[in-house]
């Protein structure tokens, strides 16, 4: 009895050490955490793709219904609730309709940071007008180019941007651009007289409005508007931003668990993705409050965060450097008390990261890498204790790599193009080698689409075809140079392992007719799975000879791991389908935890048959819609429907039997012949021979 009592804890301890080591290498727990946080956004995006005439205006309507009286924005001691912003945007929409704007047209927005910036583009979205968010620092030719490439028919500006707008006055007259000046009469004379718009004028318009008919036919994957690149390699390019992209950017807020009562501080310009899309949409979807600053000021930054009781703030890399440098000269800012839970942004340099997070006492820094027009992103959720993660633009394990499908290829910096082999294929970079980041393009996935720019040539230049990148169907990429950890060999090994495990389980189920089965060569062509099984069998035999309790614990541990691998394999199957079945994802999310509870309980000597029974019941819930759809599809789907029905019936019978007989939980599905004390070593040897077919 003493040996038995010590064997289970020893086996559990060894398993725990092995699990921690594997997690350190493959980052399973981090990937599961990311899936928990971002999974609902990805699944929600896929669902909304199929909804007719669903767009950002409908998302706003849902938010107003949930958060009507919550504060949406704070600006210069002025607060606007969700309902206030809804009323203002309705009045703005009525005004634009009166001025002759129609669904499908483009209206440019050139304003400094203020709540009305968001209200204007929201009003446009309600009537189906696209917004072009102009950089108010542009002048002359560059500004005229931005207006031209988006084919704008109107432009809204304010007092702070009229000087730069006046620099393209001659082009305004040539193009017949309508001008609307927000807040009062402009100080400069334009060749085209602007229409003055202020709150007094908006009072003449109703603050209610149902514009559903005007935006009918505008779907989730259609273009919401245009955000411009910085123009570092030429004139700015107008990147197409879809309603789905805006939704996805807002979903990043889940990494910091934003909710009503949180306050997000942003001093970043609203005309760009960080402030105007990620910042505004995060509050839009979560019900949090956006504390808006007109411009960045290192002197006012921490005082404003403290006064407005902010819990999260946005940054870009240089902003972090300015704050650190200012704190070196004015150390008193480090003692300003705040309620921050985290910061989110991109471009934070490794040399300032330590001071940024430690000196300002920021519990979590969410550093991400992506592009406005990009079809993928990397994210590094760095807690204050995770010092080894500081400086990385992204963090992900095996699961993250498989889901995103990204590649890092060698890049010629001088010629600004990927390095290719003799066949014209890109060459994957070695671990620790700088390279260019590629993400696969999938047109049926809202977060993996590449919509590109208004310029078809610029769009084509940004994408690589299958003939250029071996193993990927289509690839869009953004440029990034950083050191990486390769996990592809491990990924392939796990896939082989999974195949072998599935074969073995099938062999156990069909043992009487084992001799008549002929397995495809593709499934057993590699010796790696067989070596793994031999090692597994030797470990089991050795542990059984030492202690049956240890062997029992090992079997239950393998069941525990097997359930997780099954979920991973099932998930990969869903991902690589033309379109993932929601019922499959429902099965993974619902049943796998129950299976692991059951097998984990058996590992600890506390069987949980009810958890296995619950898994069987959840299988019904997950697959009933699939079964119904198969029957409706006709005779071509009849056989799969019968197969699903049989699987559900067998699962039901198995779970009921398990609930009646606890000993079934102690029989490992990885062992074709259960080992009994009376059988001796001959039984063990016979079992080991059956494993190898």
From TrEMBL:
Write out the entry's keywords from A to Z.
Answer: ATP-binding, Ligase, Nucleotide-binding
Nucleotide-binding found in the keyword field: yes
What is the superkingdom listed in this entry's lineage? Eukaryota
One Pfam family per UniProt: AMP-binding
Occurrences of domain AMP-dependent synthetase/ligase (ranges): 61-438
Give the family, as the similarity comment puts it: Belongs to the ATP-dependent AMP-binding enzyme family.
Q: What is this protein called?
A: AMP-dependent synthetase/ligase domain-containing protein
Give the organism the record lists.
Durusdinium trenchii
Its lineage reads: Eukaryota, Sar, Alveolata, Dinophyceae, Suessiales
């Amino acid at each position: 009895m003493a040996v038995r009592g010590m064997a289970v804890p020893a086996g559990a301890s060894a398993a725990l050490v092995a699990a921690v080591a594997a997690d350190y290498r493959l980052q399973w727990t981090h990937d599961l955490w990311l899936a928990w946080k971002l999974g609902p956004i990805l699944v929600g995006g896929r669902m909304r793709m199929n909804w007719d005439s669903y767009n950002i205006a409908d998302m706003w309507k849902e938010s107003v219904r949930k958060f009507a009286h919550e504060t949406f924005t704070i600006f210069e001691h002025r607060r606007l609730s969700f309902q206030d912003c809804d009323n203002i945007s309705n009045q703005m929409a009525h005004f634009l309709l009166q001025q002759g704007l129609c669904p499908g047209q483009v209206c440019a927005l050139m304003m400094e940071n203020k709540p009305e910036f968001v209200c204007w583009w929201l009003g446009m979205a309600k009537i189906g007008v696209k917004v072009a968010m102009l950089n108010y620092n542009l002048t002359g030719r560059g500004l005229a180019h931005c207006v031209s490439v988006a084919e704008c028919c109107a432009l809204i500006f304010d007092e702070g941007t009229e000087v730069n707008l006046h620099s393209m006055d001659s082009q305004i007259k040539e193009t017949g651009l309508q001008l609307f000046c927000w807040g009062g009469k402009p100080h400069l004379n334009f060749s085209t007289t602007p229409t003055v718009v202020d709150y007094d004028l908006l009072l003449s318009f109703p603050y209610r409005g149902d514009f559903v008919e005007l935006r009918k036919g505008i779907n989730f994957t259609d273009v919401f508007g245009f955000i411009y690149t910085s123009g570092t390699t030429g004139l700015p390019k107008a990147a197409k931003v879809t309603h789905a992209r805006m939704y996805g950017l807002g979903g990043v807020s889940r990494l910091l668990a934003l909710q009503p009562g949180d306050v997000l501080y942003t001093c970043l310009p609203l005309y760009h993705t960080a402030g105007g899309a990620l910042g505004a949409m995060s509050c839009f979807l979560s019900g949090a409050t956006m504390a808006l600053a007109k411009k960045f000021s290192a002197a006012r930054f921490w005082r404003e965060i403290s006064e407005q009781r902010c819990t999260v703030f946005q940054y870009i890399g240089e902003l972090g450097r300015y704050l650190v440098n200012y704190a070196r000269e004015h150390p008193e800012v480090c003692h300003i008390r705040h309620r921050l839970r985290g910061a989110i942004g991109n471009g934070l340099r490794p040399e300032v990261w330590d001071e940024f997070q430690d000196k300002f006492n920021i519990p979590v820094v969410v550093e991400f890498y992506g592009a406005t027009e990009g079809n993928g992103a990397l994210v590094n959720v760095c807690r204050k204790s995770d010092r080894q993660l500081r400086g990385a633009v992204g963090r992900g394990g095996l699961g993250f790599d498989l889901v995103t499908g990204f590649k890092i290829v060698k890049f010629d910096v001088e010629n600004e193009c990927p390095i290719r082999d003799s066949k014209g294929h890109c060459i994957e970079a070695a671990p620790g080698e700088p390279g260019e980041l590629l993400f696969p393009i999938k047109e049926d996935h809202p977060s993996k689409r590449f919509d590109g720019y208004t310029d078809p040539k610029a769009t084509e230049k940004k994408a690589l075809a299958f003939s250029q990148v071996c193993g990927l169907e289509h690839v869009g990429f953004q440029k990034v140079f950083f050191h990486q950890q390769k996990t592809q060999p491990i990924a392939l090994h796990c896939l082989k392992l999974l195949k072998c495990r599935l074969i073995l389980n099938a062999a156990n189920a069909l043992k009487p007719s084992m001799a008549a089965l002929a397995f495809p060569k593709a499934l057993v062509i590699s010796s790696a799975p067989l070596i793994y099984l031999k090692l597994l069998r030797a470990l089991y035999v050795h542990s059984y000879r030492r202690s049956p309790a240890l062997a029992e614990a090992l079997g239950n541990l393998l069941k525990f791991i097997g359930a997780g691998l099954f979920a991973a394999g099932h998930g990969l199957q869903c991902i690589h389908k033309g379109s993932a079945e929601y019922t499959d994802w429902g099965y993974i999310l619902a049943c796998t935890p129950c299976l692991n509870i059951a097998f984990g309980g058996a590992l600890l000597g506390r069987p949980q048959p009810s958890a296995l029974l619950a898994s069987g019941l959840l299988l019904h819930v997950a697959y009933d819609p699939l079964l119904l759809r198969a029957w409706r599809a006709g005779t071509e789907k009849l056989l799969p429907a019968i197969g699903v029905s049989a699987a559900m019936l067998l699962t039901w019978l198995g779970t009921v039997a398990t609930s009646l007989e606890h000993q079934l939980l102690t029989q490992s599905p990885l062992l074709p012949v259960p080992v009994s004390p009376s059988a001796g070593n001959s039984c063990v040897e016979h079992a080991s021979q059956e494993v190898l077919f």
